Amino acid sequence: MKCEFNWPENINIQYRDLIKYYDLIKTYGFSIDPLSYDFVYSHIPVGRLYKANDKLLPGKIFKEFKEESTFYIHIPFCQRRCAYCYFVKEPFSDSDALKEYLDYLKKEVDIVKQLIKKDNIKSIYIGGGSPSILNEKQIEFLFNNIIAPIKTDGIEIAVELHPENTTKEKLKTLKENGVTRVSLGVQTFDDTILSRMNRCNGNLKEVIELVKSQFDNWNVDMIYGLPGQTPCIIEKDIEKILQYDPPSLTWYQLWYAPRKKDHQILMSKFPREAFMSREEIIKTRLLIDTKMREKDYKNYSGEWYVKNNNNYTTYERFKIEAKGNIGIGLGIYQYYGDYIFENTEDLNEYKYWLDQNILPIKWYRRMSPAEKTIRKICMNIKGLDEAGSINEEDLGVLKTGFQDYKIEKFLEKINILIDKKLLISDNNCQYKLNPNVSILRDYIIKFLLKDSGWYIEREGFGESLNKIDLDRAIESFVRYAKANFRQDVRWSLSLFFGIFDDTRNKFDLFFSKNYKNIDRDRPEIAQYREPNENDFSFLKAFYLPPSYISGPVCIVCRHNGNNISLDVPFIKVENEFKADDINQFLKSVLIFEDVDNKSLNYVDNYYLSYLPNALALETNETFFVFHIPFFEALGIGGIELAINKNLSRDQLNNMRDLLIPYFADRLSLEINRYSNHVYRLHALKNALASIMARNMSHNIDSHVSPRARLDQVRARLTELDGCRNDIEVLETLKNRLDEYRQKRSDFLAEITSDPLLTTKSVWFYKDIIIPLIQNTLFMDNIAKNEGICYGNKNKNEKKFHNALTINVRIKGKVMSVNFKSTNKTVKYPDKGYPYDNFLDEDLISFYTLGDPDSDVEIEVPGPVGEHAFYGLLENFIRNSAKHNQLELSGSEDKVLKVDIEITDPNDEAETDKFYLIKISDNISFPCKAVSLKIDGKEYNTLIDIIRAYIKTPIIDGSGKKRDLAYGLSEMKIDATLLRGSVDFMNMENFLDVRAEDNKLVYEFKLMKPKKLCLVMSLDMNDKKERIANLKKHGIWVFNSIDEVDNLFAFTDSHEDLNSVSAFKFVLIDCSNLNISSNLIQLIHNFPFRVILLNYYGNDKLLSNASRVFVLNNSENIDELKKMISGENTENNNIGEKIMEWVWANWLTRWKFGNAGHKVLELYLEQNLNESPTKEWIDSATCFNKKNNDYKLSLRVWGKDNDETITCPGNTPENKTIFNGNNTLHIYYDRHGAIFQGIDRQFSFGSDSYNLLDKLNKDFSLIFAANPLKQKTLIYELIESGLLRILIIDERLAERSVEQVNDTDANLLHNKVYQGNKVPRLWHIASAANIYICTHFGCNETNISPLHANSYEREIRKTQDSIAPVPKLTFKYNNGKVNVSYQIQEDNGNSTELKNIDMLVIHQGITDKRLNGVSADKFFDNISSFIPWVIIESGRGIPPNLPKYIKFLPYSIIDDLISNKRIAKYRLSQLVMSLSKQKG
């Protein structure tokens, strides 16, 4: 459908200006989606319509007919149905059908005329259908018998015409009967489009000339946005219609109305790509508007253009129509007074009621004063108002009335429009629509009404019910229940959504008293009574092992995969199931709840053995299933059927007699079988927790910790001549071991609560091996019982040897590290360590890798998942030392060399997902003669014994833990986790042992990282090789959301080769994808970095507080597609190029005020020609060139020959850009010295300052990095600086007020806070945009400190030389969030903290300090203010962790934040990559 169309520059400018407003409110749920556009006219739907079975209703509606009104007459017949038409129509059969319909119109008008005063009818409009399908005789009948009784002299009478059946004779007859205006439905001049729409315009040119000759006041209707229409076609339509110079023109955007999809059924054949994009539809609208105004047309209410104001009387009619619009005919929608009402759409029903002299009104609603006010405000925005503005008085009516949730939502959105200047004040307490967004008025009205209960519709593009629809139904149900259910009725989402009873126009609900009450905000109105057993008959058939059903579950039905209808706020089952096919009935059940694919598989395998045909009932009545909680989430089974009340009691008894024995006998075996499987899983989980806790106690607490007491460490340092033993050394050693132990505890808590909830990317050598080597007390003592420790070889020579070394080869490259201090470099593993770094006066403060380019990035299971590897290695070392004493005794030095090798696996199917890792030593020999019986079988060599232990389950048949080989058992567990599995039933498949070169070698797998999950519908059939190559670069391409869903399908099969490693980024191109079915569920599996391309939806879960980033820049996206398809990128750097594109676009997410430029300022306190500063300078040149369009820059500072701090390339022009008010700076500064070279004041709250010295754990990572090789590092550092994190934790609140008194910290405080004082940890953190909460309150008036003792103590002892005690307050009050801080003296003035990206909150806060507010509600409200939320705890993953919230062990926070410096880079990379694979 695309065409080469060059948009005029003025259109591009208007579009950019318009999109700015869209960007301001899109995060609040505002959407511009051409495929969910609703044309707003006088009868805006403001709520659910009820069945009109009250014969007195018309009399009530027209009780006092005082208001002016228009009168509409509907002729529903057409020669053919146009594909786009959403109106009620009947197929044209013959003239007799028309005559009969006119007779019924007369019957209807005869009733209506008795209820109204015809003097109040100000215009008559005849529409359809096609009124011009009537012949001259029928037109005469219409005017003489139907119009005449309601017509007064001088009013406007308008008629719609179809070009296909408009003739000169018909036009003459219309004019003679008083028609003053006609409207010709041209729609488009393009014959191809017309044919596609099943439409024919006949001899259009001739018809237009006929109309012009007969009528002075005539209109043409045009449509844009039809499938296949392009800007080129529409431009031609504009040119052609303007040649005829019509007095008025109406340009309608295609109304593809989900609520009318049954009428637009022909549209479903067109794919989404056949329609215009959002950008095209807006630019087209702007183009039409521009062209019309150039020809002196004035616009009214959006669609209607009038020339020279000569048709203003018709606009007056529109304004009257906004007050009242009544009429006659099939399916018409009417509005008058307090009522909205609608005639039946069924022609037979229409005739039936009129034959009984009753108006055929089927649906109605009497509007409350608030609803009428809402409607009036929307009409004002539309432009069909009296004053053309929104009156503050009307808003006051809503604000002072009963605060129903719908009104609250509406007012919130009004305030958003005012705040973002889409509604502007005229200083007279009135608001008008901003002229710059006038073309969006219909979208704005829909935004106001949608998601607030006013605007009832079924979303979707011809889709069946899916999880998104279900989520919407449940949300609506909660809102509805809170507003309407009685307080004393106990209910929850387990409360099922009953049968809709058409005779009473209500849903029959049944309640269960054992369900939990959902928290409420306000007293309820006793509007609904509690249903009782007399309302309907139902049957319950349960199999209950061992307890009654509990917990929230919602189940709906479908028939053969067809659609079911969703009728908010309840679920209504329209596709009925016949009782003569119970097999098919049970197969149609869909289950929604906390159920993953694994659980659904169990449902199929263990429970749903379908009912035999012998159970078929001899009845044609329908019945509905409501409850089949047959899955692991509940741990119990049951079925509940609601039966149509027309069944007799005998039939019900017969069904019960058949069903209960079936479930008791037939299913009990299957249920018990599955129950045994579940019990064994739980026993296994308990056993592995016991084993790992025992091994931690044995390996660390028994072998290491006893030798790590201060007196023993000091003695050990004294024993090793030349080592320092002062308090700084002792503190360093103890802190490293304590950190190791704390993280191990967090790891155990996590994997025993819900393992593999997430994975984390780390560099194998840099992030796993080097910290282990630096953990001196651990390395020296883990095998000291066996004499393997660090010691003096010859005291006289003061020469040392290391008895335990870790030797690593990665893909054939030998890895090494250089530990550096001021005066010394120690190379490992060639020379000494672990104590060599304490021989120098200056402690070793950083390191460089011998071959940094050879290190590999891997994924580990969880935020502290490196301890899966450490646990495996500990047990390997302990086993090697313990069981090879003879071999060690023959060595003078008693050296244990641990060799680790990483390669790609031999199986090509696994090379994209895993590394193969081998671990061996120099003293374990596979064929060593050892004799041992295991389970009665004797083994005689070391390798056979180890293999037998690996193959032996860790629990016996009864579920009891086996007391054998705990070390190997943990190695199996760790290998399983490192492989990315929790299939503990098959752990023997994840750890292997083999003999290689007379060495005993353990083998297992490590997960490779996945950089990018790209979901984009591309024609890549001929590019499979390219897709495979992309995957080698960590870029996984999927054609659909379902493909991604399959990747996350968690199975227990060890044959499943899927890696659960997390993606760092997820990009989803929504333009050609049906994303609604699974995206909401999958969003929780993704990291926080999610980008939606071409997304115009407004789903709450996606748009809340910018939870995902929406990118709709077509040029940028085209550039990405070219890279993916290989049009402009070679294979050798494809991954690098794509990830640079992703990062650059991702960073445009952050916008603070007017800050447009983001500058990373880096200073490592080196000369300009020293490494790595030199490499950073070189990378800056390349980076700045690539990212100029994205307004991203890197400036690297260093010392010149005069020791002056300077920056190469810092020209006067650059200084102007970089030092301006429109620039945001991220500083990574060694020793606080960068401000000596930068002539710029730090901007607190937007700039970020990260103090980079030896105390900061980021320092070595950044200093040892090669930015020329790690191309995304610069982007990562910028993101780290931009990320604004709020932390609520009592322990951190206590630490935050502690003083940090050192030279670097004092410099930081002086430059950032403009005060020459000793800072506190809070100041160090907040400078880096990490804000530590000190005071917390939830629905409380008095906000108390999180840690009162430390806070009050510091307040009392504050001195002039010390920075004031900061105060950061988090207030949660009735769903609203406010965060404010004070960083100077407490003068009562607080600054609100805005644009928080992430909340990290301690689980203890949510357990104890929410003051009666449920955690779910708290987090649901928080997500409207803060996009990303993490719970941290030292107790493992909370069992009720909400699906959209990630988890982080507290030890990470403690390690990276609470130790005098803020390792912001490490922290940001960890939290931003958190995903959620399971749980």
Structure notes:
The chain contains 46 helices and 63 strands. The strands form 17 sheets. The protein has a nine-stranded mixed beta sheet with strand order 10-11-9-8-7-6-5-2-12, sandwiched between helices. It has a six-stranded mixed beta sheet with strand order 33-32-38-39-43-42. A five-stranded parallel beta sheet has the order 45-44-46-47-48. A hairpin with a 4-residue loop joins strand 34 and strand 35. The longest helix has 35 residues, at 668-702. It is elongated and about 120 Å long. Residues 453-647, 662-671, 794-798 and 1049-1057 have low confidence and may be disordered.
End-to-end Cα distance, whole Å, is: 44 Å
Largest sheet: 9 strands, mixed
- Helix proportion of residues, in percent? 25-40%
From the alpha carbons, calculate the radius of gyration and give it in angstroms. 37 Å
Output the strand order for the largest sheet: 10-11-9-8-7-6-5-2-12
Short characterization:
The protein has 1479 residues and is α/β, with parallel strands linked by helices. The chain has 46 helices and 63 strands.
Give me some keywords for this one.
20% strand, 9-stranded mixed sheet, alpha/beta, 35% helix, 6-stranded mixed sheet, elongated, 1479 residues
